[in-house]
Amino acid sequence: MRINKFLSLCGVASRRASDDIIKQGRVSVNGKILEEPGFVVNEGDDVRVDGRKVRPPKKTKVILFHKPAGCVCSAHDPQGRSTVYDYLPPEYRTMKYIGRLDLQSRGLLLFTDDGDLLYKLTHPKFEIPRSYYVWTTRPLSRSDAQRLVDGVEIGENEHGEMEEGHAEEIFFDEGFFEMVLCEGKNREIRRMLEAVGYTIRDLKRVTYAGVTLGNLPTGEFRELSATEEKSLREMVEDENSEK
Predict the structure, then answer these.
(1) Where would I find the RNA-binding S4 domain in this sequence (predicted)?
(2) Residue 68: pLDDT band by 50, 70, 90 thresholds?
């Protein structure tokens, strides 16, 4: 990569302004002052401007994983149960999951090494939508569905404060219903259904911030496509701009 493009990627200056910086003798590569802006820099080269090392921003990743029921969202489990990281190759095991799923829940789980994106996708104040397919031991009535939309008390949190859970929307389908939430309280859907007298048989997350699970097999993962990641980041920025 030409040195002026490299400096631009590092946020030093535009390519044209970088040419001027180079001509002023302010740039060194591997300890040697550059004189020509056409120099080609290679990966691993020590590039410095005014004696300070510069690097391009780290390329972050987002992966989509289809979590099976029965594995925990944790790096280590003291009970010896399988974790979501057991399904990932070593190069992905430093990534953080976005919005945990409880032990018996399954479906879409995103991972990223972008701390800012992780924060914006999980903090309740940003109200990022996620949707779930829910199967209960008896059919959910329309009146109880409205109670869930209006909001129900779901018990105390770890600080002893009473919490309320509510669904943004509920859509009925054959044998199950879809629930859309914009928060991520601990076991929120299970606690909401228990509050109105229902027991969940199966719970599957199918979307998160516009990313869909699709037909990805259980226990498999893939990196988001460039289009998916672009849409995800645009949704985050759109949601944040409204807060």
Answers:
(1) 1-63
(2) very high
Q: Which residues are part of the catalytic machinery?
A: 102
Choices 3.40.50.300, 3.30.70.100, 3.10.290.10, 3.40.50.2000: CATH for 3-53: 3.10.290.10
- Give φ, ψ of 235 to 5 degrees: -65, -45
Residue 58 has pLDDT above 80, yes or no: no
Architecture of domain 129-208: 2-Layer Sandwich (3.30)
List Cβ neighbours of 213 (8 Å cut-off, separation of 6 or more): 64, 66, 107, 108, 205, 206, 207
User: Are 106 and 218 a contacting pair, CB within 8 Å?
Assistant: yes
Domain boundaries, the chain: 3-53, 58-126+223-243, 129-208
Predicted structure pTM score = 0.76
What confidence tens digit (pLDDT) does each residue in 179-212 have? 999 988 889 999 999 999 999 999 999 999 999 9
CATH architecture type of domain 58-126+223-243: 2-Layer Sandwich (3.30)
Q: How far is CA 20 from CA 36, 52, 115, in A?
A: 10, 17, 34
Q: How many residues does the chain have?
A: 243
Phi, psi of 149 (to 5 degrees): -70, -40
